[in-house]
Amino acid sequence: MLTRTFLAALALACSAIVQAAVPVYGYIVRNTYPHDPAAFTQGLFYRDDVLYESTGQYGASSIRKVELETGEVLLKRDLPANYFGEGIAPVGERIFSLTWTNERGFIFDIETFEQVGSFGYQGQGWGLTGDGKVLYMSDGTAFIRVLDPATMGVLRRIRVTADGIPVAQINELEWVGTEILANIWQSDRIARIDPLTGQVRGWIDLTGLDELAGAGSDADNVLNGIAWDDRNRRLFVTGKRWPKLFEIRLVKRP
């Protein structure tokens, strides 16, 4: 026969498990904007009423300034054909840009896109964002590197987990408020990550958004690209070769 003490302990444990479950958020589309359907989106951020975007693929990688309302490319710099472009992030008046497997990144002037420097790192480069003080870099694993933008040296590593389980395939990153939003490669989900503990605070489920975008049947045309307009509190998302970019509002699910 089960004792009252055991039953009480079991109930407490079950309660703790329920409370520990990571909350899930759905979405409401607030606005839809045109997006270059040839852009293999790797990185995205919003600053001074302009979108900045990086694209991938050998021979087609670039960084761009894009007018949000029209999708018009206002300024573009192509990367050398032997580099596969990845994430980008601003620090002051510069843009830091990653590449996939070359272990080499570039630094560009944010106004002119003139190259003003470069840096090296070990392993692959995937996503990049910053909080105004340091940079956060993903490499496709369950770890995010915290980098000193002055030296690009690794200050620490964040191990990302959800309910205690490591979360791999972390891709494009965006700093929003006090957390990091991260696309999970080949999924319809964005993780809301605590930058101190690495714990996933919530999942954003964007199932169906690819169909709304008219993403097509290519397996690589997946969700990727997060930008935050801090001034107007707007969240933008898009995907690789999507002809649309969306402003969304999050809705917590029961």
From TrEMBL:
Pfam hit, one: Glu_cyclase_2
Q: Which InterPro entries match?
A: QCT, Quino_amine_DH_bsu, WD40/YVTN_repeat-like_dom_sf
Q: Which GO-annotated molecular functions does the record name?
A: glutaminyl-peptide cyclotransferase activity
Record keywords, A-Z: Signal
Q: Which domain of life is it from?
A: Bacteria
Q: Signal peptide span per the entry?
A: 1-20
Q: What is this protein called?
A: Glutaminyl-peptide cyclotransferase
Q: Which organism is it from?
A: Pseudoduganella albidiflava
What taxonomic classification does the UniProt entry list for its organism? Bacteria, Pseudomonadati, Pseudomonadota, Betaproteobacteria, Burkholderiales
